[in-house]
Structure formats: structure tokens, C-alpha cells
Amino acid sequence: MDVRGVTLKVGLSATTTEPALTGGHLDGIGIYSRALLRELPRAGVAVDARSFGPAARLSVGRPMPRPFPLATLRDLVLPGSLPGSFARDHLDVDLFHATDYRIVRIDRPIVATLHDALPISHPEWCNPRLRGVKNWLQAKAARKADHVIAHTRYTIAELVQCFGVDERRISVVPCGVDEEWLDAPDPALVAATLAEHGLRPGYFLTVGTLQPRKNIGALLQAYLGLPASVRSLRQLVIVGAAGARSNELVDQIKAAQQRGENVVWLSRLTSSEALRHVYAGAGVFVFPSLYEGFGIPVVEAFASGVPVVASNATSVPEVTGGAAIDVDPLSVGAIGAAMLELARDEALRRRCIAAGRARAVQLTWRETARKTAAVYESVLKG
């Protein structure tokens, strides 16, 4: 309910959830957007899903009034002070929430979720063809939004530094995990998924697009440095599509496989249910990322009852909340030592599993939606 005692109607970005536009693969922004589409109605918000893209290809949201390129060109050419529809599109909502960086002028308050400032803070990790566009889109979003949502306190500092956003216009709303993940999946279904992909329970697992900031190369080195007896019993399972600047890492993974190492790369695991099963079969989850605006896979591992080795960099310790073994992601030795410790010390495993599940209970998508709805109400109150 909103401040006027009636149901709040919000336009919500759905472009990153459209199967025809994403190829069926959801990145972190897509997972976040899909979760809000599902959970906001339970928080008393009527959602009008809107997407940029040809109407014939949309299955989740209705089209925005203008295609994004045309709306962006109009924004550049026409001053925002012009009256009526010359400068601003009309949407029959109380507020519009842009969950990605595609923001155009509309005649309603705008909330924007800015997930990180990576293209500006670490351009060396980004696709050089898209870096300039992403920088411009994020800066544009920061200027046009009436209020900004960040996922961690760490991200606030970056948004202030990189985009000059007034900290008073930023609210922290963490990401989460589906509540059903807190219950163990059907063991028979888990076993079937593992058998389909040639996995043996108890493996080391990591999840994330293969790109430099995910630091999967260091994890591979750490795994290959473990005792042969451990590697023979526990596979290293890497779940994630090849991203920008991942050619060298892909070559390293394939070279390890050709040498007979127990390394499995699942590059096309697009089913959420299959991913949940893969988490359930893991013995240790490892997340050595050099940079994160949040890090959803960590929470998914917590909810799945898997002990976690996590990076101590950027926002990750804020997300783990002391429930993981934190390591220096630049130290291959530290990553390997923590992996070995969790593989061998059953008492430590139990403590980490209990702490992780307690942390996951605090970080559900339902709670994300509740806090997001509270942000909407505060914006409309002025």
C-alpha cells in the first residue's frame, strides 16, 4: 500500500528478463529484475512490466512508448524543460523503476538501481567495445533518477565518487535468494542433474560469468595446487558462460581437462532448477571475485547449505556477514588453503553451513521487494 491508502502502481524494467532479447541467459541484473517482477505484488505493489525492444519479441513486459535508441536521441536533442510529450513520455503509473541503465525521460518520478560503477572504477575489466556506452548510460541514469538504489554500502561510496550522486538520494536494498532455496531439493532430482553433467557429489563449485574480475584463473591455480588425493576425489566445477576477455582462461580450463584433471566447465547451465541442483551437490563453494556490487551466488550457496570460501574484497564481506571463510583473492595459496580446510575439517564445515543458512534467511527476494516498496513510498512522500 502507498501513502494514499491505495495500491501503488509501478512501472518496472523487464528488458533484461526477456528470453528473446537475452538468449535465455539471465545475468545478475536479469535475476534481480525477474525477482522483483515476482515478489513486488506480494509487497502490495501493482507492477506494470515494461521492456525496450520490438513488441513482437516481448513475452514478459509491454513495450515502452518509444524504442530506446529513439528515446535516447530525443533526450539528446530536446531540452527537458519542453512541455508535455515533446520532452517526456507518459506512463500510467505512480513511479518508474529502472532496474538496469536504460533510463529515458518520463512524466513520473524515477527510481534507478545502479548495481556498480565497474566501467569507470575498473575499465580494464570491461569489454572495450561497450565500456564507453556503459559509462555514458550509467552517468545518464544517475543524473535522471530521483532516487537511486544500491545493493551494498560499498557501492554507495563508488556511486558518489564515480557519478557524483548525492548520498542522501541513495538507499541500500540488498539482493537475495528465492525462499524455496532454503529447503533442500528432491535428492532424486539432484542426482539426475548431477548424472546428466557427469558430476560426483562433494565437488568444489564456483558460479559466475568467466571474466577477469571473477578471478576464476586464480581458483583454477589453487585447485591444481591441491594434493592429488583431494583432486581425485573432488572435481572443480565451473558454472558460467564465457564473457569478455576470457579467452586465456578458457584455454587454461581446456588444457587442464586435456591433462586429465577433474575440471568440469558448465558453460550453458541456464535452468534455475538445474543450477539449484548443482549447488546442492557441492561440497565447497568458492567465490574469489576481485570486484562485486553484491554477489548473488554467495547467498545461493548459503541457502543451499554449502560452506563458502569468499573474497575479502569490495562488497563481498558485507554480503557474507562473517558466514564464510574470507580470503585474499590475490593469494592463490590462501584460496587453496581455505578450500583444503573446508574439505577436511568437518566441524568447521558444520559451523560455516549453519552460519551461511542463518545469513541466507536474512537475504531473500521477498525481503528485497519489501524494502524496495518502502523506497517507492519514501520517494512519493517527497
From TrEMBL:
Record keywords: Transferase
InterPro entries documented for this protein: Glyco_trans_1, Glyco_trans_4-like_N
Glycosyl transferase family domain segment(s): 201-358
CDD domains registered for this protein in UniProt: GT4_MtfB-like
SUPFAM superfamilies (alphabetical): UDP-Glycosyltransferase/glycogen phosphorylase (SSF53756)
Protein name (database record): Glycosyltransferase family 1 protein
Source organism: Pseudoduganella albidiflava
UniProt keyword Transferase, yes or no: yes
Matching Pfam families: Glyco_transf_4, Glycos_transf_1
Gene3D superfamilies: Glycogen Phosphorylase B (3.40.50.2000)
Glycosyltransferase subfamily 4-like N-terminal domain sequence ranges: 27-180
